[in-house]
């Protein structure tokens, strides 16, 4: 026995008998084996490449598709319709009967993936197979290949090396070779990656490629000698085809361009044929990331450009029906490389889903035309109840901005359409939910988005709507052939299919849909908090650690692994030992919440058709309203924090945007364009528009084809969904008539009495106007974003006349309109305009107050504050501080005459003076112009939560807003109304939450009273109880000792501010 064994024996012998030591040794060995087995089981998925999760939830029987796969031999090589020779490469398309879509859809039935396999068969179309032929003409005197052309089923690509000359005007590319061959080789190419789709290729310019054995022939060609010489390679590609359809923009150009150009690391020149400036503007970030040079619109170039290498055409996945995919066996890149490139090009932060510190975020893709959700509000509410933070957006903003929004989300939800292509910007492990309309979209949905999503390491879910969820049932009936038998419609051709199934809308059955939302939520919750690489490292590390652990145990207990002697053991039954097994069932937190949410009656968007109306029906929730003094409503406004809204059984609204238009086929502009959002409804009417105030009616004549008149009601005030506010707004009727003669026979006085040459805006001064906060957030800011584009050439038609409001904001009204406003309600004469805007634009999301979203408006809050400075002649655009500051910083203490007032204003002013401030105490009851000038002269604004703080809009930039929060749970409301808006105005924001002892409620009720101790209990009794306790009955006595450090912080922030 060694000294080491003796040491271990001595230590163990002191505590255990020999038999116990042996048992311990065997037990430790078995435990270590179990430990290793457990670790291997747990980390098994991470010891090899992570599998892609393919999850699909079947929520109903629904429609079924049967796809029959057939093995095709490569007959195309011998087809008479598709010929190749050793000297010629032709791009002749297949000689089949074509059924093409309109420009709007950019699709072709025979030659694209716009219909499922069995639908394509209905059109007598053969599913293409992989056709690949590669020919190389090598220069015997050189190692490199002079000409290398690859012909595949989706594309043709030729790489020309040596002396290559490009002449745009004649669409000719010539190169000299020295290989042995007789005569010239000439062929035509269309450099667009959707070959054999005649609908696309007919929109692509054809180029001629010529090879000359004798280099001197290049000098004698139809076009002259080199004028512009380039030292880098060039790529010739087209922006024709279906390039302005977002799906095809990526599938046909962006992804192929990446795989073709990335290897040059920016040292490549792009030669664009079929110039498309709109496409170039849309994808400018991608073009700049792939090429260091300004692209050349080659079509109009009469000068000859010479290159050492020219690539004609773009690489794409060689197989049909492999969309948005890069085949790594044919390319040195993958879709992971492409998505990494996009994140770099657009500076996107999120590479993978990370839910460690936030709720998962879902984006609901809205659509302005067909295949739109008609109950977006209900879907958003259901998602919120499931546990998601909800974003509703339409892919109509700039690509960079929308990419950032998508990348910030964890789930993308949308009806089948090009908007889903933006899933390329989602972080890894995010979820894509595709809604399939009726009509047999299963195969197409899987091809265009399902399979590509899995290839991007995204989770993919589908929801097939039932017939009752389609607008087609309401239009045709449940037993109509269109609903009952889509295959019969397919047989009548592409136009029949398109006009029927691509123009339907979707009303999701929330009860059927909720389980799918829950599935998406569950998939995200199961997602590891570690990245893919971290998971692999963790798995390998744990495995190595377990081996080391086993080796250590075996070394220590080596001497005790002899066979154990037989033992007779009896267990006393009265030992009282118990084994308790605890089973916990975990559900999504959203489903076991102790509060309930009620959703209101859905509002239907009014579009100019006979079946739909734009109505302002309010949500069907129990309302708890305030008095005239506060101008607020609990369920429908931001007057209470989120937790209080929950107590009142209110649904937290989300951003919901839906836009539809009626276009006049004889004009380029839209005749009627209506936008419905969660906060506002706005319609722009163009043409012959007549307004009659006495009857609150607006008539417009349109020439679009529709049956009968379209009529809907609107309340032109930007706080839709708030019952109290909207009940104080006059309702207007908008009527569309196809026959202009109908305008002359309307109920109100016949013909135009007053004709106006400028547009008009109809808006209300009802609602909560005369509350300073609502004056700005509901009227002034929306009026600015709506009217500013007219540069004063606009007429205001005011409904719900409010003369004090008009007097208060007369400077703003004069700055936005060069004309006297019209109190339209009492007008019995008919006013006629060429354009009338009904309603005001507003930030589309709830709880975004005093904010302008630049993605939905051409203006920003910086523009609005600049407008205010110009209107009121305010001198200070920004705080002037630092070493050059020749004055003390100035602090404005906003006093209040009634509730939420400071009771020790003098002490606060003295403390501020001691710190170094010049102190101004004022109440916001003077004229706006005078008070705006006072505010603009200050560097800090201090006040208790209330409408007076809205005057921060007049502060210079980099000033400090200091909000005092009374007791009662104002944190969320304070942040929503003033905290977040202040930061959006480039102001510094500070908060001071008072203690109970600083509130007058302690002196009134005592420290242990429910009002002081438990504000949530008061909130449960309703709005009136909350308002009387915390908004009306409470004043503030600031604890100076507690408050001084915060004042010092404000002073320090100003001193640090750069000049």
UniProtKB/TrEMBL annotation:
Keywords recorded for this protein, A-Z: Glycoprotein, Glycosyltransferase, Membrane, Transferase, Transmembrane, Transmembrane helix
Transmembrane segments: 24-47
Ranges annotated as biased composition (Low complexity): 78-96
Membrane topology: Single-pass type II membrane protein
Signal sequence coordinates: none
InterPro entries, per the entry: Glyco_transf_61_cat, Glycosyltransferase_61
UniProt subcellular location: Golgi apparatus membrane
Coiled coil: none
Domain of life of the organism encoding this protein: Eukaryota
Disordered as annotated region, ranges: 76-103
Keyword Iron attributed: no
Protein name (database record): Glycosyltransferase 61 catalytic domain-containing protein
Organism: Brassica napus (Rape)
């Amino acid at each position: 026995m060694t000294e080491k064994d003796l040491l271990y024996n001595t230590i163990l012998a002191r505590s255990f008998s020999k038999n116990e030591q042996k048992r311990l040794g065997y037990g430790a060995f078995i435990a270590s084996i179990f430990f290793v087995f457990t670790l291997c089981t747990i980390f098994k998925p991470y010891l090899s490449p992570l599998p892609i999760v393919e999850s699909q939830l079947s929520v109903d029987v629904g429609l079924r598709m049967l796809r029959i796969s057939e093995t095709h031999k490569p007959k195309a090589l011998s087809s008479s319709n598709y010929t190749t020779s050793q000297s010629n490469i032709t791009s002749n398309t297949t000689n089949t009967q074509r059924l093409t879509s309109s420009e709007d859809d950019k699709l072709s039935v025979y030659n694209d993936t716009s219909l499922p396999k069995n639908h394509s068969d209905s059109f007598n179309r053969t599913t293409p197979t992989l056709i690949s032929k590669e020919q190389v003409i090598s220069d015997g005197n050189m190692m490199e290949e002079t000409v290398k052309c690859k012909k595949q089923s989706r594309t043709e690509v030729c790489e020309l090396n040596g002396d290559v000359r490009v002449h745009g005007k004649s669409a000719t590319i010539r190169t000299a070779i020295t290989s042995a061959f007789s005569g010239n080789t000439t062929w035509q190419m269309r450099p667009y990656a959707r070959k054999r789709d005649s609908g696309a290729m007919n929109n692509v310019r054809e180029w001629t490629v010529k090879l000359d054995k004798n280099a001197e022939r290049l000098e004698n060609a139809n076009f002259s000698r080199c004028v512009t010489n380039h030292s880098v390679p060039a790529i010739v590609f087209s922006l024709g085809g279906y390039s302005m359809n977002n799906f095809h923009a990526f599938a046909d150009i962006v992804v192929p361009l990446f795989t073709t150009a990335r290897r040059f690391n920016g040292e490549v020149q792009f030669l664009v044929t079929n110039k498309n400036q709109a496409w170039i503007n849309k994808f400018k970030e991608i073009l700049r990331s792939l090429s260091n040079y300004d692209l050349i619109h080659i079509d109009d170039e009469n000068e000859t450009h010479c290159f050492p290498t020219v690539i004609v055409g773009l690489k794409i996945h060689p197989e049909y029906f492999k969309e948005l995919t890069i085949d790594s066996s044919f390319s040195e890149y993958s879709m992971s490389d492409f998505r990494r490139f996009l994140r770099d090009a657009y500076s996107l932060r999120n590479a993978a889903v990370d839910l460690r510190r936030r709720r998962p975020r879902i984006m609901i893709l809205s659509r302005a035309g067909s295949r739109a959700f008609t109950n977006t509000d209900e879907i958003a509410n259901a998602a919120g109840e499931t546990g998601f933070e909800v974003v509703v957006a339409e892919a109509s903003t700039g690509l960079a901005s929308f990419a950032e929004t998508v990348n910030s989300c964890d789930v993308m939800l949308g009806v089948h359409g090009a908007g889903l292509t933006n899933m390329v910007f989602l972080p890894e492990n995010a979820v894509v939910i595709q809604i399939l309309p009726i009509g047999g979209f299963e195969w197409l949905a899987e091809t265009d988005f399902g399979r590509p999503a899995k290839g991007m390491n995204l989770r993919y879910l589908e929801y097939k709507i039932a017939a009752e969820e389609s607008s087609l049932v309401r239009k045709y009936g449940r037993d109509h052939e269109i609903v009952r038998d889509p295959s019969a419609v397919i047989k009548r051709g592409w136009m029949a299919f398109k006009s029927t199934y691509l123009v339907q809308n979707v009303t999701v059955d929330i009860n059927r849909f909720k389980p799918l939302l829950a599935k998406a939520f569950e998939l995200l919750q199961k997602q590891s908090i570690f990245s893919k690489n971290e998971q692999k490292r963790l798995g390998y590390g744990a495995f190595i650690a377990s081996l080391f652990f086993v080796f250590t145990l075996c070394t220590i207990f080596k001497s005790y692994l002899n066979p154990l002697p037989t033992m007779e053991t009896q267990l006393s039954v009265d030992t009282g030992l118990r084994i308790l097994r605890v089973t916990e069932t975990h559900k999504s937190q959203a489903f076991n919440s102790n509060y309930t949410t009620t959703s209101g009656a859905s509002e239907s968007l009014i579009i100019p058709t006979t079946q739909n109306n734009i109505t302002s029906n309010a949500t069907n929730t129990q309302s708890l309203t305030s008095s005239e003094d506060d101008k607020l409503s609990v369920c429908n406004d931001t007057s209470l924090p989120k937790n209080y809204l929950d107590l009142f059984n209110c649904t937290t609204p989300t951003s919901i945007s839906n836009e539809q238009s009626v276009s006049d086929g004889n004009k380029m502009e839209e005749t009627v364009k209506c936008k419905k959002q969660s906060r506002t409804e706005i319609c722009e009417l163009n043409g012959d528009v007549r307004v009659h105030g006495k009857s609150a009616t607006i008539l417009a004549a349109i020439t679009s084809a529709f049956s009968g008149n379209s009529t809907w009601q609107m309340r032109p005030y930007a706080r839709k969904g708030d019952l109290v506010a909207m009940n104080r707004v006059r309702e207007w009727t908008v009527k569309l008539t196809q026959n202009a003669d109908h305008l002359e026979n309307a109920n109100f006085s016949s013909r135009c009495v007053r004709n106006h040459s400028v547009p008009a805006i109809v808006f209300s001064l009802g609602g909560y106007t005369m509350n300073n906060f609502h004056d700005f957030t509901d009227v002034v800011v929306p009026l600015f974003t709506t009217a500013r584009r007219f540069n004063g050439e606009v007429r205001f038609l005011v409904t719900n006349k409010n003369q004090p409001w008009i007097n208060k904001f007369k400077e703003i009204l004069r700055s936005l309109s060069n004309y006297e406003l019209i109190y339209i309600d009492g007008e019995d004469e008919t006013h006629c305009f060429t354009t009338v805007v009904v309603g005001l634009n507003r930030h589309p999301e709830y709880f975004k107050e005093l904010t302008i979203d630049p993605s939905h408006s051409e203006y920003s809050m910086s523009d609005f504050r600049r407008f205010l400075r110009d209107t009121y002649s305010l001198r200070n655009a920004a705080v002037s501080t630092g070493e050059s500051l020749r004055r003390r910083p100035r602090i404005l203490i906003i006093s209040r005459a009634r509730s939420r007032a400071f009771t020790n204003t003098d002490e606060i002013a003295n403390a501020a003076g001691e710190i170094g401030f010049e102190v101004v105490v004022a109440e916001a009851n003077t004229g706006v112009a005078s008070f705006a000038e006072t505010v603009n002269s200050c560097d800090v604004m201090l006040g208790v939560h209330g409408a007076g703080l809205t005057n921060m809009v007049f502060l210079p930039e980099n000033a400090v807003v200091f909000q005092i929060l009374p007791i009662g749970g104002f944190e969320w409301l304070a942040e929503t109304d003033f905290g977040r808006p202040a930061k959006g105005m480039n102001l510094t924001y500070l908060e001071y939450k008072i203690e109970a002892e600083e509130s007058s409620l302690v002196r009134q009720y005592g420290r242990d009273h429910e009002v002081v101790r438990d504000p949530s209990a008061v909130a449960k009794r309703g709005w009136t109880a909350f308002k009387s306790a915390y908004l009306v009955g409470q004043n503030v006595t600031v604890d100076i000792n507690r408050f001084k450090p915060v004042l010092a912080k404000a002073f320090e922030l100003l001193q640090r501010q750069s000049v």
